[in-house]
Amino acid sequence: VAGSKSFEAEKLLAYELGYRVQPTERFSVDLAGFYNRYTDLLSLEAGSSFLEPPGNLIFPFLIENQMKAQVYGVELATDWRWLDWWRWRFAYSHVNINLTKRSGSTDVSTEPSTEGSSPHNQFSLTSFVDLPGNLQLDSILRYVDNLPAQNVGQYFNLDLRLGWHATKNVELSLVGQNLLAGHHAEWGDGTKIQRGIYTKATWRW
Prior knowledge:
It contains one helix and 13 strands, in the order ββββββαβββββββ. Helix content is about 5%, strand content about 65%. The model has no long low-confidence stretch (mean pLDDT about 95).
């Protein structure tokens, strides 16, 4: 891979629009949309092959600006304290990434690797419950769409936390993470996130 004297910084034209409404003291909604247009994005262009002593055939790739993209999506977030002791939060996001190479570009990897490395859809549902006896039960359920370029499938995930305020300054917690499966992949590097359970003690002064 070699650089190019004509390589320039990418250019971005971005539009964003958001709205927040709180119809009651216990409920609020945030909605946002965005559209980004990129030009002069990085691309890897095949150069002319050549021989290098002692007879190695080299196939160079040049870094150039032969790619452009449109990225758009929406985000939704709600917060609902439907009971004095129970609160819900919901978040959802959707994103589309569309790359296009310029006429004459020889890049065959940037489009699929970039478009397929971001989830189209994600959501999370979080619950906060205040229980008797200074106990708290928190939970979060997440969904992440598949990543084709990383060979990572869609997955659900659940984390739970039980906390106890032993005193005004001391809190003890029991936490379980990634409880729906023994392990799952989040990226294509072969690393898998394991299920975990741990305890935690917090002292504030």
